[in-house]
Design goal:
Arc Repressor Mutant, subunit A; globular; 3 domains; two-stranded antiparallel ribbon; Growth Hormone, Chain: A; 20 helices
Length: about 525
C-alpha cells in the first residue's frame, strides 16, 4: 500500500497541526488506503490456504458429525437415535470444555526442559488424532450394534466421548493458534468456505450406510492433523503474510480482560439456545421431522450458509471494510427466526430445523473472527482466548441438551406441543439478552481490525502518524495508542503506573489537539485514514 507523507506536517505550528486534515477527512501523514487497487479480501488458494481450508473443515466436520443428531452416531433403537449419541455428546463436550478452560487459565510453563517439552509437543497432535479416530470409530460401531438402551452402553459411550473430547480440545487450540497467525483479510474467505464445507459431509452420512460413517470417523482426524503439520515453523509460504507473534500484555491471567468474558458469555447463550431448540425439535414434537428429509436439511443449510456468507463478504469487499457485525446480526436474526418457528410450525419442522442450523454456522464463524480480533487488538495469547471462548461453547451444548431433556421429562407426552410456545419465548429472551447486553455491537466496533489495517504494527504506525501530525507529546502518544485499542482509564492507569487524574488530564489534552470529544470519535478518526 502506497504511503504519502505530508513533509510539512512536522514543522507546522501547534495550532496549525491540530486541525490539519487532508481532503476527504484523512489524517495528515497517514497512508491513503483509497489509492490502492488491490482487493480488500484475498480469494486465492495457495498451499497454506488450501491446508487451512481442508484441515479446518475436516476438524469442524468431524466434531459436528459426532454432536449433531443426524450425524455418525444415530442408531435405530428409537427416533432421535440417542442411545450412543446422548452420552457421547455429554462426555465429549464436558471433557473438551474442561480442558479448554484449564488451558485458558493455566500459567506459562517454566523454561527448564525445553527440549523434552518440544519433543512431547511434536507427538501430541498425532496422539490426539489417533485417540479421536479410535474413539469415534468405536462409537460408530457401538451405535450400529445397539439394540437397547442400557447403562453399560451409556457408560461406554461416555468414556468414548471423553476420549474424543481430548482431541476436540487440543485441535481447537491448535487451529486457533494457526488462525491467529495470519492476516484475516487473507484467510477470511477460506475460513468461511471451511465452515460451509463441513455441512456437505452430512449428506453422504445420511444417504449411505455405516461403512461411510466409519471411514469418515477415522479419516477426518488424520486429514486435519496432516494439514496442521504444514503450519510448523518454517512451513508457511512467504506469499501468505503473517502477523507478528502475540505478546500478552499485563500480568496474571489475560483472559480476565472484560472483552473475553463478554465473547464467552455471548457464545454460551447462542450455543445453549441453539442446542436447546435442536433437542426440542427432536424430543418435544408429536410429529418429528421425516428421516427422509435429513439430507435435504443439510443441502439447504449448506446453500443458505454459503449464500449469506458470500453476500457479507461481497459487501465487505465493496465497502473495503471489515464488517464483522454483519455476521453477528445475521446469526442473531436466524437464531430468533428458528426459535420462533418451532412453536408456530411444529407440524412442519423442516423450516425451524434448517434455520437453526444456519444460525449455528453463522455464529460459529462470527466467534472465530471475534476471537481473532481479541488476540490481535488486545495482544492476548491464542490459547487463553480460544480456550475461554470455545470452552464455554462446548459447555453450553450439554447444558442446552439437558434443559430440553428436563422439559421432556417434566411434561406429559400429550402436553409437549403446549409447552413449545414457552420454549420459543425462553430461547428468544436468552438471545436478546446476549445480543443487547452481553455483547452489543458497540463492543464489536472496539474490536474491529479495520481500524488497524489488520496488523499490530499498522495500528502503532497509524497512531504515531497521527501523533506527529497533531503534535502529541510522548506521554499523550502512549495514552493515544492504548485508547485506540479500546482501553479504558483504569487499564491505562495500571499499565503506565500513573494516577487517574494524570490519565484524564492527558486524555483531555490529546482530545483537544485532535479536535474530538469521545473515544468513539478517536476510533472513527483512525478509521477515516483507511478511506
Amino acid at each position: 500500500m502506497t504511503e504519502e507523507r505530508n513533509n510539512g506536517a512536522a514543522g507546522d505550528s501547534d495550532s496549525g497541526v491540530r486541525g490539519r486534515r487532508e481532503g476527504g477527512g484523512r489524517i495528515a501523514g497517514a497512508p491513503d488506503a483509497r489509492s490502492t487497487r488491490e482487493p480488500f479480501l484475498s480469494v486465492s488458494l495457495c498451499g497454506a490456504k488450501g491446508r487451512l481450508l481442508f484441515g479446518f473443515a475436516a476438524f469442524v466436520s468431524w466434531t459436528n458429525l459426532l454432536i449433531c443428531f443426524e450425524g455418525l452416531l444415530r442408531d435405530s433403537v428409537a427416533y432421535g437415535g440417542g442411545v450412543v449419541h446422548d452420552p457421547f455428546l455429554v462426555g465429549a463436550c464436558v471433557t473438551a470444555a474442561l480442558l479448554l478452560v484449564v488451558a485458558a487459565f493455566r500459567r506459562a510453563g517454566s523454561q527448564g526442559g525445553r527440549a523434552a517439552v518440544s519433543r512431547v509437543r511434536r507427538r501430541l497432535p498425532v496422539i490426539a488424532a489417533s485417540a479421536g479416530a479410535v474413539c469415534a470409530i468405536a462409537a460408530v460401531l457401538l451405535s450400529a450394534i445397539a439394540v437397547s438402551n442400557g447403562p453399560h452402553i451409556w457408560f461406554l459411550a461416555t468414556i468414548l466421548g471423553a476420549g474424543a473430547g481430548c482431541f476436540v480440545a487440543y485441535f481447537t487450540l491448535a487451529w486457533g493458534s494457526v488462525i491467529a497467525a495470519f492476516d484475516m483479510r487473507d484467510i477470511l474467505a477460506v475460513l468461511c468456505a471451511a465452515l460451509c464445507l463441513q455441512w456437505a459431509l452430512f449428506v453422504p452420512v445420511v444417504l449411505f450406510g455405516p461403512e461411510v460413517k466409519v471411514a469418515l470417523a477415522g479419516i477426518l482426524p488424520f486429514l486435519s492433523w496432516g494439514c496442521l503439520r504444514g503450519f510448523d515453523d518454517g512451513g508457511v509460504e512467504e506469499g501468505l503474510p503473517r502477523i507478528a507473534p502475540c505478546t500478552p500484555s499485563g500480568k496474571g491471567t489475560e483472559c480476565c480482560d472484560g472483552v473475553v468474558p463478554r465473547l464467552s458469555a455471548a457464545l454460551f447463550c447462542f450455543a445453549l439456545t441453539i442446542e436447546f431448540v435442536w433437542t426440542c425439535n427432536v424430543v418435544m414434537t408429536s410429529e418429528p421431522l421425516d428421516e427422509g428429509l435429513f439430507w435435504l436439511v443439510y443441502v439447504c443449510v449448506l446453500g443458505a450458509a454459503a449464500l449469506v456468507m458470500g453476500i457479507i463478504l461481497g459487501l465487505m469487499e465493496r465497502w473495503r471494510a471489515y464488517r464483522m457485525e454483519l455476521f453477528y446480526r445475521t446469526a442473531f436474526a436466524f437464531a430468533v427466526v428458528g426459535s420462533v418457528a418451532l412453536p408456530l410450525s411444529y407440524h412442519h419442522l423442516f423450516f425451524s430445523y434448517a434455520v437453526v442450523y444456519v444460525a449455528y454456522a453463522l455464529i460459529t464463524a462470527t466467534m472465530w473472527m471475534l476471537a481473532w480480533a481479541v488476540m490481535l487488538m488486545r495482544k492476548r495469547a491464542p490459547y487463553r482466548v480460544i480456550g475461554c471462548v470455545f470452552g464455554l461453547q462446548f459447555l453450553a451444548l450439554p447444558c442446552g441438551f439437558a434443559a430440553a431433556k428436563f422439559m421432556q421429562w417434566y411434561a406429559a407426552a400429550q402436553a409437549d406441543a403446549d409447552l413449545l410456545p414457552y420454549v420459543g419465548f425462553v430461547a428468544v429472551v436468552v438471545l436478546v439478552a446476549a445480543y443487547a447486553f452481553l455483547l452489543p455491537e458497540r463492543v464489536l466496533l472496539l474490536l474491529s481490525p479495520r481500524l488497524l489495517k489488520l496488523s499490530h504494527e499498522s495500528l502503532d504506525d497509524r497512531c504515531r502518524d497521527a501523533a506527529a501530525a497533531f503534535g502529541l507529546t510522548e506521554r499523550e502518544t502512549e495514552i493515544f495508542m492504548l485508547l485506540a485499542r479500546g482501553r479504558d482509564v483504569g487499564y491505562i492507569e495500571k499499565t503506565l503506573f500513573i494516577s487517574r487524574n494524570t490519565v484524564n488530564t492527558h486524555r483531555k489534552n490529546l482530545y483537544r489537539k485532535l479536535g474530538i470529544h469521545t473515544q468513539q470519535e478517536l476510533l472513527s478518526l483512525i478509521e477515516d485514514s483507511l478511506g
